[in-house]
User: What shape does this take?
Amino acid sequence: MESRRKSNPQLRRGLCYANNSKQQDRSPSVIVIGGGMAGIAAARALHDASFQVVLLESRERLGGRIHTDYSFGFPVDLGASWLHGVGKENPLAPLIGRLGLPLYRTSGDNSVLYDHDLESYALFDTVGNQVPQELVTKVGEAFEFILKETDKVRQEFSEDMSIFRALSIVFERRPDLRLEGLAHKVLQWYLCRMEGWFAADADTISLKCWDQEELLPGGHGLMVRGYLPVINTLAKGLDIRLGQRVTKVVRRYNGVKVTVENGRTFVADAAVIAVPLGVLKANSIKFEPKLPDWKEEAIADLGVGIENKIILHFENVFWPNVEFLGVVAETSYGCSYFLNLHKAAGRPVLVYMPAGQLAKDIEKMSDEAAANFAFTQLKRILPDATSPIQYLVSRWGSDINSLGSYSYDVVGKPHYLYERLRIPVDNLFFAGEATSMSYPGSVHGAFSTGMMAAEDCRMRVLERYGEIDLFQPVMGEEASVSVPLLISRL
Ligand SMILES: Cc1cc2nc3c(=O)[nH]c(=O)nc-3n(C[C@H](O)[C@H](O)[C@H](O)COP(=O)(O)OP(=O)(O)OC[C@H]3O[C@@H](n4cnc5c(N)ncnc54)[C@H](O)[C@@H]3O)c2cc1C
Assistant: This one.
């Protein structure tokens, strides 16, 4: 194999700095831009397939929207924390199983809306009265029924509309489904949860597309020890350059040239673009020649929403032993919820998760004001709550490395835009959650697209050099070794 590689002069191409005039005797090369799950998965796969890989990451840390923080003395995730689809169908299951990372299953249901079982909520009104559990369950079921009714609206109207508008039409037609008083507020809370799933307000979510993603079986499990070990394992042994913000990507027939903020350039046979959709939308990376119109349209037309986490660390646990605490209100904007990490991971921590417009508004506040805002919500339902001893605040919407939390389908735009975003352009291969038509907005979706980009890249580069059988396929044997996942429910 080695001698064959050497025999092909075209393969004697290497990844080098542009100012390094002497081309080195190396195997095909690729630059991966972005060190989140997608970029790392692509880099790992191509490295294992004998490519020369350099990964350029703008932040001083790896993981992107996986961000496990240890400043409380234990892991908490400021970005992703659930594995959606706790079962062998999940492409991350073999790795998580091998690492022995425990999961806490918050729901056995495969639903978009109920990543927590209905009985695991304790909901309160804004003056601290607990909502009877039967009402929580009853309204949860009613909401599911009402959403099914919106399907009839979808069948009837050729034009797309927002999920909010569709709900209004259902209520106009079926006044018997309208809820009043406390039940109405509980319904708003479920709507607020749905908005959290999409990181967007109901009046911007597409009726036609909201349920087009695929849900893997096995329910939803929290990564009790944080997601970072998965990233670190995949990144082991890779050539990773942190603090390298890419500003320009030039593609030519025989390779790519990538420039970073400080002016340094890297060249290779191909590049994997694994930066977030928000970054592509902001045009902070210049492509030369420009990307084709269909690609630019996909970038412009896919939505990117905001969900944040305000993580409150307390001295003691003073709240009920449920997985989720919620505040119900007249509108979904006024509702809120807290994930109880004590139940899931034994830590005295509550995670407040605003989404959509509320998340945008909170991002305008200082960290201290944002933490106070979350604590005020908690005080409304638990007046004896003691102040947190520490807090963490995410800003995924304004962070220039993400410019949004995850993608979603906006009204009037087709779901196939995710695929358009994924399709390669010459020797540029695109990866990331927003390029996953089946699993957008998820860690396993990002991982799958990284693997796909790696395979596409391998095929293209090696086809061109006539060496298609030379290297290992990107999905090695290891991927098929299955270790059962460690799942608990306290
Ligand atoms: C608050 C929150 C909660 C979430 N919860 C879940 C969950 O529970 N389960 C789940 O499955 N998913 C969840 N998600 C979604 C999940 O985190 C993402 O879908 C996934 O991590 C995205 O991975 P990625 O590789 O596509 O992008 P990213 O992780 O964003 O990686 C892109 C990388 O590119 C880097 N970059 C940006 N610009 C440049 C540049 N110019 N040059 C070089 N590098 C650059 C970034 O710094 C980043 O490291 C959540 C997301 C958020 C924000």
